[in-house]
User: What shape does this take?
Amino acid sequence: MVIEDNPMVVKSLEFKLSKDGYDVVVAEDGRTAMKLLSESAFDLILTDLMLPFVSGNEIIEFIKSECPDVPIIVLSTSTQEDIITEAFTMGVDDFITKPFSPNELSLRVKRSLAKV
Amino acid sequence: MNTPVKHILFVDADREAQSRFNSYFDTGSFLVYNFNSAMGAIQHIKESKPADVLIINENAKPMGAAQTLNYLSDELQFKAKTFVTSESKGSFETDSAVYEVLKKPFDETEFQKVESALGYTKKISDELYSLDYLKELSDGDTVFINQSIQMFIETVGPRIEELKALSAAKAYQKIAEVAHNIKPSFEMILNKRGAELCNFLAHHAAPGDFKSYVEDLNEEFLLVEKHLREDFLSKENSL
Assistant: This one.
C-alpha cells in the first residue's frame, strides 16, 4: 500500500512498483488509508508523514495497531530529519527520500519484504 | 535566501576525492568535516555535533562502511541521510539497510545527489526543466513521461492558485503544507528553482517572506508550464 498525496509521486511509485511485479493500492489521505487498512491485508506500507486529515504519528500508530508485523517504509523529504527520527522510534523499518532513486526503491522494498 | 549551513561528514582517505568534494561544496552554505577513518566521524556523532549527511567510503578504516553503518545505526541511533562512496558499485547494502552510492571519481551529478538529499540547490540552474529523472524512472517510457508532464501542469497549477489565496489570507502554516506537498513535483522535472522556493516556503520562511516567495513560485510555474506546453503537449511535439 502506498499512502501519499502528491499525484506525481503516486504515479511514479505505482509505475515502478508495478513494473517490479507488485500489486499497488493507493490511499491519498490518512482517512482513506485507515479505512483500507481495516478492510484488507497488505504486505508492505510506504507512507508519507504529512498527509491530509491524519498526522504522520497517528497513521504509524494505526498501522502498528492494525497490522504490527507489516513493514513500513516512510516516504520523506530530506528536510524532515526530526520527523523521521521520531518515526523510527515508533517502529518504522526504513525511509526513502522523494523523489526516490528507482533502484534504491526497488532494493529497499525487496529488502523489507524479505524480512516478513 | 538564507538557508542554514549544512554539515557534511566525509569519510574517505582518498585525497583526490576529498579535494574534489571539498572544492565543490566550498560555498559557505556547507561545512565539510573530512575524516581519513570512520573513527573521527563516530566520535563526532557520539559528541552530538551537527551532522546532516554522512558520506563514507565502502572500505573506510578500520571496520569498512557496512560495519560502521551498522554500529552508527544500532548503537548511536544515527539516522541522517547516508551515502557510500565507491568506484564500482551502484548501491550498497548492509544486513539492515540499503544506501545510495556516490560513484568515484565524482562528477557534478554525484554532488547534486548530496545537495538534493540536503534539500538544497547551490546554484539556480538556467534550465527550466529536464526529463532525465522521468526517463530514468521509466526506462524512457514515452507514455509515462507525457502523462507525468500533463500531470505536473494539471496538479501543480491549482495548488499554486491555492497558495496565492492562502498568501492573501496570511495562512502561513497551510502555505507551508501545500509547498511541502508540491515540492517533489518540481524535483521530478528537475526544476531546481521551483523546488528550492517550495522548500523555503515549507521550512524556512518568516511571515514577511511568504508573499514574495509565493509570487516567485507562481512566476516560475507559469514559465515552466509555458515551455512544457510548447515542447510536449502540442500534437507535433509530443514524445
Q: What stands out?
A: The mean pLDDT of chain B is 87. Chain B has two domains: 6-117, 132-233.
